[in-house]
Amino acid sequence: MQTFYSTGGKAPQADIATAVLQSLAPDGGLYLPEKDIRMDEDFIASFQKLDFPTLAAKLSARFWGEDFMPLEQWQLICEEAFNFPLPIVKVKNKAFVLELFHGPSAAFKDFGARYMARLMPLLRKDDHRPLEVLVATSGDTGGAVAMGFLGVPQVRVTILYPAGKVSDLQELQLTSLGQNIRTLRVDGSFDDCQALVKKAFLDPRLNDTLCLTSANSINIGRLLPQSFYYWWLMGQLTKVLNPEDLSQLTIIVPSGNFGHIFGGLLAQRMGLKIPQLVAATNANDTFPKFLATGVYAPKPSVATISNAMDVGKPSNFERLFHWLGASAEGVRETLAGFSFSDAETLQVQERVFNETAYVLEPHTAVGWLAAEQFQQEGKPTVVFGTAHPAKFLDVIPQALQPAVSMSPSLSALIGREKQFTSIPNNFSALQQVLLR
Ligand SMILES: *Cc1c(COP(=O)(O)O)cnc(C)c1O
Question: 391, 383, 418, 386: which is closest to 407 by C-alpha?
Answer without folding.
Answer: 391
